[in-house]
Amino acid sequence: MKNHPVRVHRSDENLAREGQLAWKIAEVASENVAVSDDVTDMVINRIIDNASVAAASLTRAPVVAARAQAEDHPYQPGATVFGVTGRFSPEWAAWANGVAVRELDYHDTFLAAEYSHPGDNIPPIVAVAQHTGRSGADLLRGIVTGYEIQVDLVKAISLHKHKIDHVAHLGPSAAAGIGTLLGLDTETIFQAIGQALHTTTATRQSRKGEISTWKAHAPAFAGKMAVEAVDRAMRGQTSPTPIYEGEDGVIAWLLDGPDAAYEVPLPERGETRRAILDSYTKEHSAEYQAQAWIDLARKLKQQYPHLSAETISSAVLHTSHHTHYVIGSGANDPQKYDPTASRETLDHSIPYIFTVALQDGEWHHERSYAPERAGRPDTVALWNRVTTQEDAEWTRRYHSLDPAEKAFGGRVEIELTDGTRIVDEIAVADAHPLGARPFARADYITKFQQLAAPVLESTEIERFLDVAQRLPYLTAGELAGLTITPATPFAPGPKGLF
C-alpha cells in the first residue's frame, strides 16, 4: 500500500489531474489485477450475506416501495430485483436491491476514521454486470475494487466528524467498482468518481434523532447515483475538478477545511486488493457498535440469571467516543429512550439494545424491535437505568490501526440493588475475525437459510447458494441467478409518480 497526501489546492495552483485523489482511485480501478483465493471466498460470503438480509426484509415497507419503483422501470437486457421476476433498468435495480440489503442494518461493516457498510457496493455492481452481460469473474473483480476503495477512504477521511453521511465514500467506491467491472479507462472512471462524489454528499441527519426510513435508502441512492455517473462519463460528460482538493471542493467546505491534510492508502501498481478481508459482518441485526454489547449481554444473562429490572439499580457502559455519542446516551437524543420510537431509532440506541439482550439472552431481527417488546414496563424501567460513558482507552482502541488491538466494545459496570457490583468487558463481537466464534462460510450459509426460510422455498434457497458459490466461473447468462424470488408473488407495492 502507498499513502497519498491529499490537501486543498487554490485554483491558481492548477493541480494536475494525475495528482488528484479521484485520478489515483481511477488508476487503481482501471488496472486488471488477479484476485486471490481468500479474497474470492470472502466476496462469495458477502454476496450470500447480502441476500440473507435482503430476504428477511422483502416484505418491509421501505423495500416494498423501492421494489415497486423498480418494477415501474422494466428494461432489456436490464438487471434483476430481489423478490420479483423480470428485468429492470440497472440504476433502479441497484436502488431496489440496495434498500433491501440495507433495511435491517444486518450486513457487513468496516470502522476506522469513518464507518461504512462496504457490502452496499454489491447491488449497483451486480446490476450493471447483469445489464451489460459480464461474467462472474468480471463481477468478482468489480466488487473487490468497490470494497478496496471504500475501505481505503474510510481509513483516511472522517465524514461524521463534520456531520456528513458515510455514503459520501460509497458513491466513489461503487463508481470505481463499476469501472473495473466494465474495464473502463482511467479517464472515464475519473469523471465518474467525481460525479458520484458530487451527487452523494449529504448530512448525517438521516441517522440522528427520530431516524426515518431514509436510512435504508441513503446507500441505495449512492449506488444509483454511481450507476448514473458511470453512464454519463461513458457518454463523454465531465465532472467538477478537483472534486476533493478544489478550493470550493468537498474537503474545503464539507470536511476539514482549507488547511486539511490527509494520507489516503491505496494499493501499489500490481498489488493484490485485500481490503474486503479487513471488514466484518454482523451476527445480529443492529448497529455494528452494538454487536459486542449484545454478545456480552447474552453472556451475562447466562452467568447471572437473576439480573432484572428489580435487581439492577444502574448499568454504565464505558465505551468509545463514537459509541457513546452516536448510539449511546452521549447523543442526547431523547428518542433513544422512547418506547414508541421507530425501529431505525431503536437500532441506534445501545441502552435499548443492551437492555433487551440482557433480559432475553438473545437478539432477533424482528422480535427484539417489536412495539410490544419495546414498551414492556420492566424493559422501560431498566432501559432508563442504562447509560454510556466515554472511556479514553476504549476510544484509543477503537481508532487503533493494529487489528489485534482495535476494539468496538467496552466495559460494563452494573450496580445491584443489594449493593453488589458486576463488572465485565468485551473487545470485539463473537462473530468478528478475532472474536469467540468468527463467521466462516458455514455461518453465512446458515444465516441465509434461516432468514430466507419464511419467504423462499427450500429449492430456491439451495439454487441461490449454488450460483453464489460458483461466482468466479459464472457465465453472463448465469449471472442472472444472483437474485431471490419467492414462489408466490408479493402483492403490488404502493403507487407514486411512475
Explained architecture:
- The chain has helices spanning 21-29, 37-56, 61-71, 90-102, 122-132, 136-156, 170-182, 186-198, 214-234, 250-254, 291-303, 321-327, 343-346, 350-360, 371-374, 377-383, 392-398, 441-452, 458-469; strands at 2-7, 74-81, 84-88, 110-111, 115-116, 261-266, 312-319, 386-390, 410-416, 421-426.
- Helix 4 (90-102) packs antiparallel against helix 5 (122-132) and helix 5 packs parallel to helix 7.
- It has two domains: 2-278, 2-methylcitrate dehydratase PrpD (Orthogonal Bundle); 288-426, 60s Ribosomal Protein L30, Chain: A (2-Layer Sandwich), CATH 3.30.1330.
- The chain is α+β, with helices and mostly antiparallel strands and 498 residues long.
- Strands 8-7-9-10 form a four-stranded mixed β-sheet. Strands 1-6 form a two-stranded antiparallel ribbon.
- The model has no long low-confidence stretch (mean pLDDT 96).
Basic shape: globular
Strand content: 5-15%
Number of domains: 2
Helical content class: 40-55%
Number of strands: 10
Q: What integer value in Å does the Rg equal?
A: 22 Å
Determine and state the CATH class of the largest domain.
Mainly Alpha
- Main beta sheet: strand number and arrangement? 4 strands, mixed
> What's the CATH H-level homologous superfamily of the largest domain?
2-methylcitrate dehydratase PrpD
* Structural class estimated from helices and strands: alpha+beta
Give a quick summary of the entry:
With 498 residues, this protein is an alpha+beta fold.
